[in-house]
Design a protein that fits this description.
Order of helices and strands of chain B: HHEHHHHHHHHH
Strand order of the largest sheet of chain A: 1-2
Oligomer: heterodimer
Largest sheet of chain B: none
Helix content of chain A: 55-70%
Radius of gyration of chain A: 27 Å
Helix content of chain B: 55-70%
Number of strands of chain B: 1
Strand content of chain B: under 5%
Largest sheet of chain A: 2 strands, antiparallel
Strand content of chain A: under 5%
Distance between the termini of chain A: 66 Å
Distance between the termini of chain B: 32 Å
Number of domains of chain B: 1
Number of helices of chain B: 11
Structural class of chain A: mainly alpha
Number of helices of chain A: 24
């Protein structure tokens, strides 16, 4: 577009989102107007944002200055390839989620629809502003706007005490993170008072201060992304929020934190040190393993997905750590390989996790039930949702031919190249890390089978599930859109890598696209086809051909006869839905094998019980290890300080008098 | 580029896989019967069984969904793709670049997810029990298998199977200690993955012990035939993978038609010996409790990681 820069167009898009939100406030109770006009409009803006970001990937960085903000401190904005990738993610993921939301929000549920619409679109606009911000001030304003709007979205159903509690926890951790980010920016200005990102780039920090800035950023952005041990808000906030909001938070908002981490560690702080990579990788590994283990044992479907998001964020941070290690040793090709894996996983997680959260929304609407133990057999009533969820499940389990596998494959390839590192200690660490990544990927498969199998397959565990209905057309469109995004990324990884290439090139000076393009669009061979290659399209064609041909041949050569009968089940005739595994039963092997890692409260029946029952409750151990002690300490200190407040006026006068004396003593001219 | 001999070799590999896989299962069953002093079923018994099953009607449980009916074909397709990619006869396979070893593990994983989901579909107690156990074995075996592959990939500087076979077959004969570790780990893993004796028993229908059989209880007719065939294909694919990684000699190179023909008896010999060993190990071992399986596979995982570390620390100059 001549005359109109992409960044201006993106700003207009952000304003459109804001305007749509405000329009919702005009008629907060007009349900039809809001759900069938405003949310689809928001989705259209999402398409626009995605396309603009895609177009801007081929252009030079653009800057803009908005004359709002403090005196002498206007908003600086910048659109380069790094944030274009994330804007692309935001735009395309929000399309599916907004369209789904158009069909999702119902009359008479939770807050007024207009209010929801306002916060939702403010959330979108502030995420876009977070990405575009080019100075610390604009960044923090947008960041806080994002935290606040998502807080109000999480507490939509604020009538329930536990939802208010979840929202409070979310706000608390968000602000803990915001303080760390602010401090990190402060360190990076190194006293020059120039809060623009360009100013920070120009500073040359000593290694110690650079490390402080990096660690603060890791803590701050980690609190938003859900890194252990500041992950505790995620499993509380995601189940509390309405499903499109959970999808948006998990699929997109967590990625803004990843964006921030990448921005600080590769762009602003200067050249990274090798041990930052080790720290990031260790934190990522712990997060990934913790997330996947806890996601296997959850009984609430949205909580299960929340822990699975923690796992995926962990894997992304492992990739960032590996990139930092390679980058600090100037092995840029390998750094590009693992950074590509990072970007790819961000994009792929945005599609499949949003998809899975949205399917839980459909299930929740159809059954009013979130607990896995009361679901089952929904594939008969909701075939669309069940089959579309399977896309998310296969992608999330990291299996070909969908998108989750590609990023895992790239990450493992990057690990395989690591023996070239000139540091013997790192050489030892890296295979162990690769082993943990492999374990995490395999456990993710377990979790996903549990998720899909218990919700959609088997017999219905409760009577009322018979009345479940499939998703409506709006919801179906949203789900199909996200499933197709995942499928596209899985089958044409080279095309996606060509898009990512600009961002890796910007951060590291080199990318993978040239090598990948050399071998054709159907082939993914990041270094050379002799070393490693993956052709998902061919693989899909082989499997599909085998399926179709096999079916045809069997039907031609033999027959296609079929009759129905009751299930055999080894001849047991007492078959009820209670005989199936419960959610707890399915994950029992995990609890048993990894018993020391879980904090469980169990009740076992004894033979003398009149009404025997079994119960198990798995708690997040970080509450007991970290949060409760800190809370107790804070309380104790507060109590000590509260002693000052005796309630007698004579004592207060004494305080004033003593203070005066002290000041006279100290502040002598 | 794709050559005529490559195409022929590829076609050969697929057909041979389809034909040989049930034969291998039959051979193992026969050896097992001999070792256990029973009279053996005929070598071609698996073909008779497949033919019988294909002819029979499918009896579908009332609660079975479309996923249940799709899964056998998908599993069969995955296993066929796997056996088409693994270089059993020659390394000149046009389809081989479609998936390297890591992707191959992914293909096995896809099949596992489908069979587990299908097992949960009817909603019987045994089905979910089998699915849970299968996923348990799966998540323990998969990382071990990946670590084995990492070790061989580090030696040959490649994860592409054809390159691995070419480098390992044409090197000077050097004994890599890391490969020994990896080989033992791979053996452990393939016993678990193919539902063989120390972990599972393919011949059992005893409720408490079955894993694979529990999952396919509700299948019948052509669906069951496909799953049985896919199970033999999996055994065949794992055997060929093991041969490719640890005994790659005799596999023909590119553009070598005589080598391709000569590779057939070599492959038959290697598979025959492998089958005898498999039956022998199955005979002298007892099936272990399900909760011993994590220890068994944990050992495999540790051995594989050890192999990797040995490779990195001791053999970097080899």
């Amino acid at each position: 577009m001549p005359g109109l820069l992409s960044i201006d167009a993106l700003l207009i898009a952000a304003c459109c989102w804001l305007a749509i939100g405000l329009a919702g406030l005009l008629a907060p109770r007009n349900f039809f107007f809001i759900s069938k006009t405003l949310f689809p409009l928001g989705a259209l803006v999402g398409v626009l944002v995605g396309l603009l970001a895609l177009a801007s990937l081929g252009q030079r960085p653009e800057v803009a200055v908005l004359a709002i903000g403090l005196p002498d401190l206007p908003f600086h904005l910048r659109l380069d390839k790094l944030n274009a990738i994330f804007a692309l993610l935001l735009g395309f993921a929000s399309v599916g989620i907004s369209v789904f939301a158009a069909g999702y929000f119902r009359k008479g549920e939770g807050a007024a629809p207009g209010l929801l619409c306002f916060w939702y679109h403010l959330f979108l606009a502030s995420m876009l502003m977070v990405l575009l911000a080019d100075d610390a001030y604009a960044f923090m304003v947008a960041w806080e706007g994002m935290a606040m709007s998502s807080y109000f979205l999480v507490t939509t159903d604020h009538q329930h005490a536990e939802i208010r509690r979840a929202g409070y926890l979310y706000l608390l951790v968000a602000h803990l993170g915001a303080i760390a980010i602010l401090l990190s920016f402060g360190v990076m200005t190194s006293g020059s008072g120039d809060y623009s990102f360009a100013g920070m780039r120009a500073q040359h920090l000593s290694p110690m201060w650079a490390s402080v800035a990096f660690l603060l950023a890791l803590l701050g952005f980690g609190a938003k992304a859900g890194l252990v041990p500041v992950h505790v808000w995620l499993p509380e906030a995601h189940p509390a929020a309405p499903s499109p909001v959970s999808a948006m938070m998990s699929g997109v908002m967590l990625k803004t934190a990843i964006y921030g981490l990448l921005r600080v560690s590769f762009d602003l702080v200067g050249s990274p040190l090798w041990w930052w990579g080790v720290v990031a990788m260790s934190v990522g590994l712990v997060t990934a393993l913790f997330g996947v283990l806890y996601s296997t044992v959850q009984s609430d479907m949205k909580r299960l997905l929340a822990y699975s998001s923690i796992e995926n964020i962990g894997l992304i941070v492992v990739g960032i750590g590996l990139t930092l290690i390679f980058h600090s040793y100037h092995m840029e090709t390998l750094a590009a390989l693992s950074l590509t894996a990072v970007f790819f996983h961000c994009l792929s997680h945005a599609s499949f996790k949003s998809l899975l959260f949205l399917t839980t929304g459909s299930v929740l609407h159809a059954t009013k039930e979130r607990s896995l133990g009361r679901l089952g057999g929904l594939i008969h009533r909701m075939p669309w949702v069940a089959w579309l969820a399977l896309f998310g499940v296969v992608a999330s389990a990291g299996l070909p031919p969908l998108s989750g596998f590609v990023s895992e494959w790239l990450l493992l390839q990057a690990f395989l190249f690591s023996p070239g590192l000139p540091h013997p200690w790192l050489n030892m660490l890296v295979p162990v890390a690769a082993a943990v990544v492999a374990l995490v990927a395999a456990l993710a498969g377990f979790t996903m089978v549990k998720f899909h199998g218990i919700i959609f397959l088997g017999q219905m565990r409760e009577e009322n599930l018979k009345d479940a209905h499939d998703a409506g057309p709006w919801e179906k469109f949203g789900l199909v859109w996200l499933a197709l995004l995942g499928l596209f990324m899985g089958i044409f990884p080279s095309t996606v890598i060509a898009v990512i290439d600009g961002a890796t090139r910007q951060l590291l000076g080199t990318g993978l696209a040239e090598q990948v393009r050399e071998h054709g669009w159907w082939m993914l061979a990041p270094i050379s086809p002799e070393r490693a290659s993956y052709q998902p399209l061919i693989l899909l064609i082989i499997i599909t051909a085998a399926v179709l041909l096999g079916r045809q041949l069997v039907h031609r050569l033999y027959h296609g006869r079929l009759r129905r009968s009751p299930a055999w089940d080894c001849g047991y005739f007492f078959q009820s839905s209670r005989a199936q595994d419960t959610a707890e039963g399915f994950s029992q092997p995990i609890r048993r094998i990894f018993e020391p890692l879980f904090r469980m409260r169990r009740h076992f029946p004894t033979i003398r019980d009149e009404k025997p029952y079994y119960s198990v409750e798995v708690e997040d151990p970080f509450w007991h290890w970290l949060y409760l002690p800190v809370a107790r300490l804070t309380q104790a200190i507060s109590l000590l300080i509260a002693r000052l407040q005796g309630g007698r006026i004579a004592v207060y006068l004494l305080y004033s008098f003593l203070t005066l004396i002290l000041l006279l003593l100290v502040a002598r001219p | 580029m794709i050559s005529i001999s490559g195409l022929i070799g590829q076609l050969f590999a697929i057909v041979l896989g389809l034909v040989l896989a049930p034969l291998l299962s039959g051979w193992v069953g026969m050896c097992r019967a001999w070792f256990q002093n029973r009279s053996a079923p005929p070598l071609f018994q698996p073909y008779y069984t497949l033919h019988k099953l294909f002819r029979k009607d499918v009896v579908l449980a009332h609660g079975a969904s479309s996923l249940f009916r799709t899964a056998p074909f998908v599993i069969f397709g995955c296993m066929l793709a796997a056996s088409a990619i693994i270089p059993s006869l020659s390394t000149d396979l046009p389809l081989a670049p479609a998936a390297d070893t890591i992707a191959l593990v992914g293909v096995f994983g896809l099949a596992r997810i489908f069979i587990s989901l299908a097992a949960m579909d009817v909603g019987t107690s045994f089905g979910t029990l089998g699915a849970r156990r299968e996923m348990l074995i799966g998540f323990l075996a998969e990382p071990a298998l990946l670590m084995v592959i990492f070790t061989t990939a580090l030696i040959s500087q490649s994860t592409s199977l054809t390159t691995i076979v070419e480098t390992l077959a044409h090197r000077d004969f050097v004994i890599y200690p890391s490969l020994a570790f990896a080989g033992i780990a791979f053996t452990f893993v393939s016993f678990a993955e193919n539902a063989r004796v120390p972990v599972d028993n393919p011949a059992t229908h005893l409720e408490l012990t079955m894993i694979h059989e529990a999952m396919i209880l509700e299948y019948s007719g052509r669906h069951l035939a496909l799953i049985e065939w896919a199970a033999s294909l999996k055994l065949y694919a794992y055997s060929c993978l093991g041969l490719a990684l640890f005994f790659p000699w005799g596999v023909a190179g590119s553009d070598n038609f005589i080598g391709l023909v000569a590779a057939i008896p070599v492959l038959l010999l290697k598979l025959g010996i492998g089958g005898v060993l498999l039956a022998g190990i199955e005979t002298v071992n007892a099936k272990m409790r399900i909760f011993r399986a994590p220890e068994f596979l944990g050992t495999a995982f540790l051995l594989a990681v050890l192999g990797l570390l040995v490779r990195l620390l001791l053999e970097t100059r080899v």
